[in-house]
Amino acid sequence: MGVRPHVVIVGAGFGGLAAARNLADVPVEVTLIDRHNFTTFQPLLYQVATAGLNAADVAHPIRGLFHAQRNLRVRRGEVVGVDWDRRVVLLDDESDGEEPFDHLVLALGAVATWFDVPGAAEHATPLYTLQDAVRVRNHVLERFEAADADPELIDRGELNFVVVGGGPTGVEMAGALAELFAVVLRRDYPTLPVGRARVVLVEALDSLLGPFHESSQRAALDRLRASQVEVRLGEAVAEVTADHVRFASGEVLPTRTVIWAAGVRANPLAEKLGLPTTRGGRIEVADDLGVPGFEGVWAVGDVAAARDRGGERPLPQLAPVAMQSGAHVARQIGRLLEGRSTVPFRFRDRGTMATIGRRAAVAELPGGVRLRGTVAWLAWLALHLLYLAGLRNRLSVLLNWAWSYLRWDRGPRIILQPSPGPDGG
Amino acid sequence: MGVRPHVVIVGAGFGGLAAARNLADVPVEVTLIDRHNFTTFQPLLYQVATAGLNAADVAHPIRGLFHAQRNLRVRRGEVVGVDWDRRVVLLDDESDGEEPFDHLVLALGAVATWFDVPGAAEHATPLYTLQDAVRVRNHVLERFEAADADPELIDRGELNFVVVGGGPTGVEMAGALAELFAVVLRRDYPTLPVGRARVVLVEALDSLLGPFHESSQRAALDRLRASQVEVRLGEAVAEVTADHVRFASGEVLPTRTVIWAAGVRANPLAEKLGLPTTRGGRIEVADDLGVPGFEGVWAVGDVAAARDRGGERPLPQLAPVAMQSGAHVARQIGRLLEGRSTVPFRFRDRGTMATIGRRAAVAELPGGVRLRGTVAWLAWLALHLLYLAGLRNRLSVLLNWAWSYLRWDRGPRIILQPSPGPDGG
């Protein structure tokens, strides 16, 4: 490592990558650790789950992003702890090693939170990792194969699909499922009554898309209902089993598919490390995103309870916050090395958007600008292409989008179950 | 099914698909059964295995191929037997059913054959299914991650890759691996001595690409050796273990990766069905591809021992034979329904080709025309694009090829391990 300070970044999501990139011109050596060899573009996972995109379209090899960044090396491994006295990050047995650090940037991300709903952890699938998305794709297509082989299964809920959570992920997933069924699977299964397939979107609050303006919420609701999605507001899931869900209202719906978009909590590793955390397990940070009492330790993205201008509530666990907080920490490390003091993190809200279906989206930009319909949809497409890592992935996504749009088709609707093999490799 | 005869086709590979398509205008009802919901374009599996293509690029949903063919339905299921008395195909428990047939077209394909080499079945990976290809991709990339974390592993063979079998699959795989290492992974692992990675191609005969002309064989050999592939002719693998292979010559090579392209044998289901089989388990067929003694039962593709003009040796287990034999059987069923007699199968050899690397391939066409180098490579690209099912897959493959060629890069080099999940779904 030479005499330059060593910055270890744990996690190669939006936050970790932003920190890594913004350290390119800082006189440090950087080690970026992730359990996977790829970074996942989570906003498009629902399109992998609904057979619109290839898995590799929304995943980019981490090493490929840093060919030109000489002060950075990538290390694949699972972080299991930190020895605070020796200031080393501890990796799992398989990686068999440790990384000493001068600065540690924790970009650990989040995991699904089950709100203590019985059976949810066992029988629902979140939509947070690439594996989740592939699993949902396989599982959904399997249901249609099963129903096609034995249509009586439809009476037992084989084609009932429950999406829990009316935030952007839940809304996008429900809309994409309804479109997959109506447009694509209807043609794939000509003898199956695909119209009996139900998409039920459950939201505990009285409106979808909580942080959006009421007019956007209504537009989303109208569009989903027009697409035959059954939206249940003010309803919650009380129990999930292998063959049904029970709602808080007492109603029981037979289903084999519960997709959990109800919320995330910080990676539990944060608490395990002995760091101060908030409710939801997020790491408490000072206004410069340093962890109080832990010199040279920073937290960014979903795992950090970053606040804007001393706000009471932490900022939402969204990609823009992660990217900006990652970049902020990189700049603070640079400032400290120049002998300057740190400055507080300021989040610049550039707006938020969600897509609901074909030429349908809602977008809210700063200054009260609200977009709907085709314009919002095109803005959504452009922005997601822009932020996607790697030109090849952008081209591939563009190809698949064009294909879906022009041909009313979804390409990668294959059930690719893993088969156990030699070495589990 | 009405009063039309019912044709059941088992297997949706080249042979089964060709039979299905050519029955479109025959007055029959067709049921096409496959264990997967997709068909695999096997000639490009080695490119999935070397991170050049997405899995879904070489797989097409079977149902999507037959939207317009009204007399065909697709059934996903595993065939476990045939009740010859009742003339029904028996499906596995999960599919829980059976299919009565008037005509049965067996297009069961092949599986790897291990030639009784100890340890091969446990520790080598064939390259015959899409799962195989994804497993090889994950496994190869894992080796580089492991070696990067602990370079001492290189001394113990972590970066030694053995390809067994010098036919087209082995040659293409070895060439693609060498290119992946030299062009792409060298940049991904700047601190790893990637030059120490070895690709060893083992062929028991004295030349590669057995059926090709000597000049093509030599061109392939020269090109592979120029790409640093260690080609061992007249050598065989005597044993495979988790950490080494032992050659027939006695030499031991440490390795964790053995890719088995040494040959295939017919799907063992053929023997289980009680049909007459040849050495290699292929179904004996009459010259019209009907199974002698089994009225209305036909075999096509890799599982059939089809002969051309009473030849002694069955035709090779290659895609063109499968496609032509599938189409032939469809036409014979049509003839029988018209009250005409069947005609013998004639294989039209339109040539054979193999690619070795960037702008390097060999092709042999009828009439003694032999191509090499860029011309052969372009012919190879064009032909494979042409035969690939589905426009979307063609566009995606074209995009990925252009990307690899222009950017010296491979897109989908992600290690996507399956994670066990709810319902195993």
What report would you give on this structure?
The structure is a homodimer of 425-residue chains. Chain A has a five-stranded parallel sheet with strand order 5-2-1-9-21, with helices on one face. In chain A, 54% of the residues are buried. Chain A contains ten helices and 25 strands. Chain A has helices at residues 14-21, 45-49, 120-123, 130-149, 168-188, 214-226, 269-272, 319-337, 373-387, 391-407, and strands at residues 6-10, 29-34, 38-40, 59-61, 72-76, 79-83, 88-91, 98-100, 103-106, 110-112, 124-126, 160-164, 198-203, 229-233, 237-240, 244-247, 252-254, 257-260, 264-266, 283-284, 297-299, 304-305, 352-357, 360-365, 369-372. The radius of gyration of chain A is 22 Å and the shape is globular. In chain A, β24 (360-365) and β25 form a beta hairpin. Chain A folds into two domains: 6-112 and 265-337, FAD/NAD(P)-binding domain (3-Layer(bba) Sandwich); 120-259 and 351-407, FAD/NAD(P)-binding domain (3-Layer(bba) Sandwich). Chain A is an alpha/beta fold and 425 residues long. The model of chain A is unreliable at 420-425 (pLDDT under 50). Chain A starts with 5 loop residues before the first strand and ends in an 18-residue tail after the last helix. In chain A, α1 runs parallel beside α8 (319-337). Chains A and B meet through β5, α4 and α10 of A and β5, α4 and α10 of B.
Low-pLDDT residue spans of chain A: 420-425
Question: How many separate domains make up the residues of chain A?
Answer: 2
CATH class of the largest domain in chain A: Alpha Beta
Strand content of chain A: 15-25%
Helix content of chain A: 25-40%
Q: Please report the two chains with the greatest interface, counting residues with C-beta closer than 8 angstroms to the partner's C-beta.
A: A-B, 68 and 67 residues
* CATH architecture assignment of the largest domain in chain A: 3-Layer(bba) Sandwich
Mean pLDDT score of chain A: 92
Give the oligomeric state. Answer: homodimer
End-to-end C-alpha gap of chain A: 32 Å
Given helix and strand content, the structural type of chain A is alpha/beta
CATH topology-level name of the largest domain in chain A: FAD/NAD(P)-binding domain
Count of DSSP strands of chain A: 25
Rg of chain A computed from alpha carbons, rounded to a whole number of angstroms: 22 Å
Largest sheet of chain A: 5 strands, parallel
Widest sheet: strand ordering of chain A? 5-2-1-9-21
